[in-house]
Write the structure tokens for this entry.
Amino acid sequence: DAGVTQSPTHLIKTRGQHVTLRCSPISGHKSVSWYQQVLGQGPQFIFQYYEKEERGRGNFPDRFSARQFPNYSSELNVNALLLGDSALYLCASSVNRDQPQHFGDGTRLSIL
Amino acid sequence: GQSLEQPSEVTAVEGAIVQINCTYQTSGFYGLSWYQQHDGGAPTFLSYNALDGLEETGRFSSFLSRSDSYGYLLLQELQMKDSASYFCAVRDKAAGNKLTFGGGTRVLVKP
């Protein structure tokens, strides 16, 4: 069975641009969460979606937004990119909000 | 808010046993998870404890004491491939069941 898939795997952007990251959850998983991981630190929670509704939001500015589609895939959008947004962006899915989360390989975003 | 503390680094030899401790503070504790992450890779789910006690999965075991806000991950019969970062993470029901991660423990296994 396919795991959580994320695209693209790597991305290079410049300051001020916007970016869209995509995530397909494991089949049958209805909950998707997004995390940001800076080198040397643990992942930081950005958003959680369940049944296409936002169920949680971390301490990130409004430049960060996300949505979940009817097929449970999800997009993370970041506007007005800053150098500090350079990180590994991880998507995790779970059957529901009570079950363990399983992570994709992430999108490595570099801002120049 | 939530916070977790775990040691930053542990070094051991092949075949040894390593225990990674995790203490946490959270307002809405729902469970403690452990993840393994190799350099350049994604976090891989290892175990989840919602109730007090020991959970065993092969060479890895995880323990939770909710009264002490404490848990640990036990790695037995260490192998070179176990060299990785290990994260504890608490599930916070008060905030949409998000995971709050510790800073990670880097385990280095030597021959």
